[in-house]
Amino acid sequence: MHLCHLKHIFRSLATLLLLCFLSVVIAIISAVVASAQTPEETAQQQQTGRRPTVVAPPERSPSLVARPSEFGCSGQIEAAPVSTGLEIVGAEQEQEQRVFAEGDYLFIGGGAQKCWRAGQELSVVSPRGQFRSSVSAKGGPLGIFTQEVGRVRIVELRGEVAVALVNQSCDSILLGDLLRTVPQRVVGPRRPEASLERFASPTARPTGRIVLARDAREMISKDQVVFIDLGAEDNVKAGDYLTIYRPTGAGNITRFRDEEISSNAKRDFESERFRGGKFSNQSQRVENTQGGTFSDTVDTPKIRSRRPAMPRKVVGEVVILSVQARTATAVITRVAQEVHTGDFVEMQ
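Request: output the structure for the sequence above.
Response:
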């Protein structure tokens, strides 16, 4: 074989071996780089050549019908307050404070000291006295209104007193306020949101009234605490939902005696500046259309006196937080318009 041909063959074999070697090196480098990539980089590379993967967000736990600031500071109208003999007898900064709140140290006295223990949590309450309501159909007092003003945690025992730290304040805490064990309230999840049926028919179930709102509010809205005159004697239970309603045309905070600009169409009802004539925009419908322009007009009182029974007006919804003998504490979950004390409630 010619020497030139042999040189050409050797050169081709060398080139082929070099290419094989380079291929092996490139494969090794690619493997090393891939192993060093972050999951995000790998995901980006995968998305360039594949359809994107949809990742669903984690499922949220259902929200509760009331927050701690509502069910922990709700209060109640109870038949008789539970007395433990414990009261606030002093405070660390009493030389310059008369009211106390979260973060203050208080001194507790009375009761049986052997029952105290460090870490124990107590509810601070302030009984306000017998409660009666002029809007309730129930006769006599509904109970004793007991306001929950905060919670404390005992941090240490010192002789005949216990030192407690205020870890939640709902209102002003004063010397002389009473303490008792924290009530166990079961607060369920909020049910799925649905449109409020504004003109729902009665259910023939027990009805009552909103007799009081926390903090003495008169106009009440969503997430605020109210007290109703339905209780254990009416088979009301914690977690029950009730509809808030009022009769059509009654019960608003602002009242209008008469909304018509002019009460009749006798004479001179047109404006003083722009004389629109006898059919001015201030004229009203006459009762007898054949009797002339100055006959008696139709007004609101006449329409109301002869109309049929009207549907009631649903203004909101409440859920029961706790139940006493004659009353219950509830929180408003939905509103369609303003709610106020005196509105009716009906079990759903």
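The chain has four helices and 15 strands.
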